[in-house]
Design a protein that fits this description.
The chain is α/β, with parallel strands linked by helices. It contains 16 helices and twelve strands. It folds into two domains: 174 residues, Rossmann fold; 128 residues, CBS-domain (Roll), CATH 3.10.580. Helix content is 46%, strand content 16%.
């Protein structure tokens, strides 16, 4: 009975849910973000993007509290769109993590007030090492702004919190400005969807855009399962005794171009028919000539389509000159879930 009374008392003390206020929060944040378009037109924005493009190290993003959470996200966006980046916790930085920053790095610091003590403490050690400091602040006269090489000043923003203190509008604007910087840099790099896929191989887009070269078992410089047209089957087996995965051997002509393929199944059928005499046969007699093949730069999804259509398990990978550079197995593609 006592618990029920406490629950009723708590319910009585709960204020009405103000949906109009929720709408005002969204509108306030939206207006503030739209106001950043003026900042994007200023020379400091373009200069920041240029610094990111020319940086030979990493963009180190730092911030404290809610700004630190936003800094994490900005750093992740930079890293996934072609700009090397890491997050640095400012409190940990002054306890040894400053060693994570190299002289060719750039530090991007986030602080609405520009006076966050943990951030301000980074200024002197960064200046001593002549590391470039870029800041996103609200107050252009703050200590962080005054000592930064480049200042992206959003202006002192009014938070949407009923008490006017919880970071809301300011952090939303930091995030939007960080996205604008990261994506403008990405665009300037001509960062393609294929580049994006390489950084997101576990994602659905990454899997769809993986190339044959990225999925094939054999890597550049590794020994391929190869034989010449005039090799005997015995010579072919000896040549490929130490080659990894021998589900098939690719047969080449005198110029090194792909002439055909001999699979384990081909060899088993020949042995069932001719016995050990098959070892004296030439590869040209056993191979499947004009076999299916795929270019190294083709999408792995194209290879899967060939596997399905022709019901084969091994597919030679060739270069622009029709010379073998690899071998792809249907299980390579199944393993990375190219097909859903």
């Amino acid at each position: 009975m006592l618990n029920k009374e406490k629950t009723n008392a708590a319910s009585a003390n709960t204020g009405a849910i103000d949906i109009d206020f929720a709408e005002r929060v969204i509108q306030a944040e939206g207006r503030a973000v739209m106001g950043l378009s003026v900042l994007a037109r200023q020379p400091v924005f373009e200069e920041t993007v240029r610094q990111f493009l020319e940086c030979s190290g990493s963009v180190i993003v730092t911030g404290m509290g809610k700004a630190g959470i936003v800094a994490h996200k900005i750093s992740a966006t930079l890293a996934s769109t072609g700009t090397a980046s890491h997050f640095l916790h400012p409190a940990e930085a002054v306890h040894g993590d400053l060693g994570r920053i190299q002289t060719n790095d750039i530090v991007l610091a986030l602080s609405h007030s520009g006076e966050s003590e943990e951030i301000v403490r980074l200024i002197e050690p960064l200046k001593q090492r002549e590391i470039k400091l870029i800041s996103i602040v609200g107050d252009s006269q703050s200590r962080l702004a005054v000592h930064s090489d480049i200042v992206l000043c959003m202006g002192m923003l009014t938070e949407a919190c009923p008490l006017g203190v919880a970071p809301t509008v300011s952090t939303t604007c930091m995030l939007a400005l960080g996205d604008a910087l990261a994506l403008t840099t990405m665009k300037a790099r001509d960062f393609s969807v294929e580049d994006y896929a390489r950084f997101h191989p576990a994602g659905a887009l990454g899997r769809k855009l993986l190339t044959v070269g990225q999925t094939m078992w054999f890597k550049p410089g590794e020994s391929l399962p190869l034989a010449m047209l005039d090799d005997t089957i015995e010579e072919m087996l000896v040549k490929n005794e130490t080659t990894k995965r021998r589900g098939a051997v690719m047969v080449t002509d005198a110029s090194g171009k792909l002439a055909g393929i001999i699979t384990d199944a081909d060899l088993r059928r020949a042995m069932a028919k001719s016995g050990v005499a098959v070892f004296a046969c030439k590869t040209a007699e056993l191979m499947t000539p004009n076999c299916k093949r795929v270019r190294e730069d083709a999408l792995a999804a194209e290879a899967m389509a060939i596997f399905h259509k022709y019901r084969i398990d091994e597919l030679p990978v060739i270069d622009a000159d029709d010379k073998p550079v690899g071998l792809i197995d249907v299980q390579d593609i199944v393993a990375i879930k190219i097909v859903g």
